[in-house]
Amino acid sequence: MVKIGIFGIGGKMGRRIAHLAAGERDIEIVSAVEKDGHPVIGKDVGEVLGIGETGITVLSDTGEGAGKIDCMIDFTIAGAVLEHVKICADRNIPMVIGTTGIDHEGEKVIAEASKRIPIVFSPNMAIGVNLLFGLIREASRVLGPGFSVKVDETHHVHKKDSPSGTAKMIARIIKEACGKDVPVAAVREGEVIGNHGVVFDGEYETLEIRHNARSRDVFAAGALTAARFVAGKRRGLFSMADVLGLG
Q1: Which CATH architecture describes the domain 2-121+217-244?
Q2: What is the pLDDT of residues 129-180, one digit of tens each?
């Protein structure tokens, strides 16, 4: 049984992760955390999710359950994540981090903490997106030198970072594979969960590679897969490619 905690249980992603976790036989929620003053503080997780009482109360800290947490999952905001990383490192709690918008300095904080605890850190937990990264790397290697390359992404209007962390990762992969700095067209509209695409445009042909997320559950399911992977490991910084065995 993998015992998990969730930072940001009152948020959209926190709720979805908790909903999916509640239906898994090999996962148990033992800690639910929200920021001070949030309306879900003091409530039973089951009340927050509408699934009946669970016996786990939402707190502003990992609480007494810290000693039995196999992994804390974090999809909050960049500033909060860095605080949470320090807490988990001090308490020897593994982490799964899916928050985007973390800058280079924040990445350094996470990398430093991974010398003490195991951390899975990825801008996108979707299995399909992580396969997409590999496809883009190979296409960039073969087509990049002779084709123009463009990246586009669309997300809901509430998303704070732009371009998305996934789009930045795609641009980085292309740069590493063929040396090109590519533009990223970022659109914020409606309630789009997350669409990403790359277009390789040549003189005689065009290749498009795309991934569209239909539900936040794709990220939540990936986070639970990552939690299973990281639980019990001693230390280290891992990506979803490591989790999925993609090399």
Answers
A1: 3-Layer(aba) Sandwich (3.40)
A2: 999 999 999 999 999 999 999 999 999 999 988 999 899 999 999 999 999 9
Catalytic residue (choose from 84, 155, 196, 211): 155
Instruction: Give the architecture (CATH level 2) of 127-213.
Output: 2-Layer Sandwich (3.30)
Q: Based on the residue annotation, tell me whether 159 is a catalytic residue of this protein.
A: yes
- CB-based contact 197:210 (threshold 8 Å): yes
pTM for this predicted structure: 0.85
- C-alpha distances in Å from residue 175, one per residue of 99, 150, 225: 23, 12, 29
Q: Where are the domains of the chain?
A: 2-121+217-244, 127-213
Q: What is the pLDDT of residues 77-101, one digit of tens each?
A: 999 999 999 999 999 999 999 998 8
Catalytic residue among 35, 159, 180, 233: 159
User: Which alpha helices (H) appear in the chain, and where do they start and end?
Assistant: 12-22, 45-49, 78-91, 104-113, 127-143, 165-178, 217-230, 240-244
